[in-house]
Design goal:
The complex is a heterodimer of chains A (about 475) and B (about 450). Chain A has about 475 residues and is mostly helical. Chain A is about 70% helix and about 0% strand. Chain A has two domains: about 325 residues; about 100 residues, Cytochrome Bc1 Complex, Chain D, domain 2 (Orthogonal Bundle). In chain A, strand 1 and strand 2 form a beta hairpin. In chain A, about 50% of the residues are buried. Chain B is mostly helical and about 450 residues long. The longest helix of chain B is centred in the C-terminal third of the chain and has 61 residues. Classes of the chains: A mainly alpha (about 475), B mainly alpha (about 450). The interface between A and B is large, with 84 and 83 residues.
Amino acid sequence: MFDFPIFEMPTIGLRMLMAINAIIHTFVSHGGAVGGSVVLALAAWWTNKRGDMAGYETVYRLLMVFFIITTSVGALTGIGMWIHANIISPNAIGGLIRVFFWKWFIEWIVFNFEVIILLFWFMTWKPKALTPQGRSSSVKLGVFYAASSWVTMLIITAILGFMLTPNFDGQPWIDPEVYPGNVNYNNALFNPTWIPGLMMRTFSSIAFAGALAILWTWILTTFSKNEEIQETKERMIKFFATIMMVTVPVAAAFGYYYLLQIPEAARAMIPTAMMTRAFADKMDLMHTIISGIGGTVVLTTIIAYFSPKRMPYIAATLMVSAFLLFWGYEERTREFIRKPFLIYNYMYSNGIRVTDVPYLNKVGILKHAIFVDEDKKVVKEDKSNLIEVGHTVAQIECRVCHTVNGINGLKALTAGWSEAAIRNRINNLPGGGTPYMAPFVGTEAEKDALAAYIASLNKRGEIK
Amino acid sequence: MNWKLPFDIPLVVPTMGLPGWFFDTLGVIVFVVHIAFIYTLIGASTASVLYNIFGVFKKSKTNDLLAYKMTNPTTISENMGALWGVAPLLVISVLYTGFFYTAILKVSPHILHIIYGNIFAFLLSYAYKFSWHALHNHKGFHIAIGLVAVLTFYTLPPVFMSMSNLYLQPELFASVQNIWDIMLTPLTFFRLINFFLTAFAFTGIVMIYLGVKWVKAGGEEAEVGRLAIDQGKKWFMWAAPVNIAVLPLVFFAFTPRISEAYIHTPFVFLPFLASAVLLILFFFLLKRFSHVEMNASDATKAMVLMVVAVALMATARHGIRVVSFEEPLQLQAEATEKYMTNVITEYKAHKEEMKNAPKVVLDPAVSLADSKGCLACHSVDTKLVGPSYKEVAAKGEAADVLIASVKKGSTGKWGETPMPPQTLTDEEAKTLIEWVLKQK
């Protein structure tokens, strides 16, 4: 990270900036596109098979909602994931693209199928709905759309799995002592959390899309002026609830299987990841909350299934919100337990590679910080630029996870600490109950400067 | 020259043995497709709002219908444009990683506008399209939605163009500090003029092409088709002349290092060639200006000429990259090699050192305290974040109390600063506290 220009996001911090995009993207693309495609294709097939033309029309209206959201918000936040990654971890995304270039290229080709089929499916639905042949070809398009959406998830979960568990049966994906790095592409792809992660995501996406479909069916049918459409409410909700009855338990089972594949050190971090550190020991509370959310999903699914008529708006909203919470936590946890690494055992969260550390400890992190002004790189004889140097060190090593004043702000975290205490803490950042923090990298002089800078944050008011 | 370049990513570029020209060609082709859709998006969304307004003022149903029909190319080109933008992004990220990311970082956070601004425009353009019939009696409101969508689309090229202009001129990494430094340059200005004029000219040809199809379909569509052909010609003929003049200028607005080197490569002919093709197309349409209907083969010819002109522009732009990147890529490779050699030497030495380091025999309690990170906040005899263990021992509280403090966290007993809860087994906590209490 030290070799790229420094961009700081005040107050909300870089991680939150990324998280906003990532969460929207996962909900919309995985929930809406991957899960949605399966659910809608099934619904189109089912209504058409039963000759239920009003139901078929309801499916079209649902498709319209999913189409609008996935092609705008979903597609662009997908590109956004890259742009955000460029800003936050250029070294990491640069490395991932070198490792996964061809897989991403294949994914892009599949994306073409996905988008073109979706455009076709949606834009030709109306003319094709008039004849039985038209409808059956329309249903086929839906099935192809679902298949291609799923393939795109297949590849992205491989990449996410790689970041968490880059080694396969102890076979390294790279030899750190060789330049340029000779990547073993197969070991990178076939990593232990790929398949479990994929399965969990597939089924939870379908379940989530089921919940979304129930909510939207409720809205669209309730506000429709057409009586026939209104009457489809009950049977459509029951149909989507049936899908959920199957997929919710399967997703939970795969979720457990996935959990077992996560490295020990990462698994130990789950409690902290789910809450904040202060909550880490309140496991009871956490279990209650999780059971509450899980229970809501299960309960609302059961209500929807056995009594679709009494699936009022509140229950449908509750169902979707519970899912959002659940998924949000799953995402957060997955991101968090990887800490302090971005790519496990290869690159720290702040973009510094593990191999870089001994060298940088010797020459200093700022020696190669190309975009930093010369007079902010080395502490002068008279120490007049001590704090500036410390500031740049903090920007380079700590800004990925810490802001100054905002979320996880260094100022508040060290309020009341003496400079000696801060210096001592920097000696052992991953210790002291914070195993998710990357170690300090750099010379002793840089450590002094960093401590002086952090200490100055809480002194600043007094000086002025 | 004051070069400031990041290191290269120290992993092999996965070319699968394919030659450089393969990736160059791939890059140009995917870019041409992408930009063709973006041209259409900008033009078609503009046309849709423009003819909607004409429809109201001229009370013309044909204009209104043309406006509605133009929402289809808008939808298709916005989806396909975004999708085909990914491929050039991927190719560039793998080949010119450092330059591309540096440019993006330099124009952050404004670059995020191409995501969030785009989503906003996308949603509005869908709202515009899908509310067409519902808002039929509220034309003012409806047109306002379309207009805001179009204007938002117009804000995207300046942002993106700034990033791309910075990326193409790595010597500016040292001096450009934010997006305005690069947006407010003659180069970005010229390239934007070129972009918008090409977009309108391109859309003119798309309208002719669609118009011919609609005329063939007959009925009410034929009327719209004739209007589209007539208007398409005008779009092209308004936009092309200035563009023909501006286009070659663009390539001389890069930094002196690039522009001067560019003159000595064959690439320099391409912008002029692109202008020439546009000129030919201009006369081709002029000859058919008074024809109300054009035949399909004329429309196809016009489309082919237009695409050729765009491809020539894209290749000329690729030429800039070739000329501009030669020296910095070389410098970057040398710097990275030197850096990585040092890194790997030091890494190996460190590993060796670790292997040979004599194992220090410590009190197991001390190593436990170290491994659990207690020593990050405590030392035996001086106060750090937390009290020294001597102080704790001197105070002499019962072991149970202290164990509870450590496991559950503690605050207020020694000062404002809290101790967060520490993850320890009962066994570990007991060992540690017994050791602490021995430190009197």
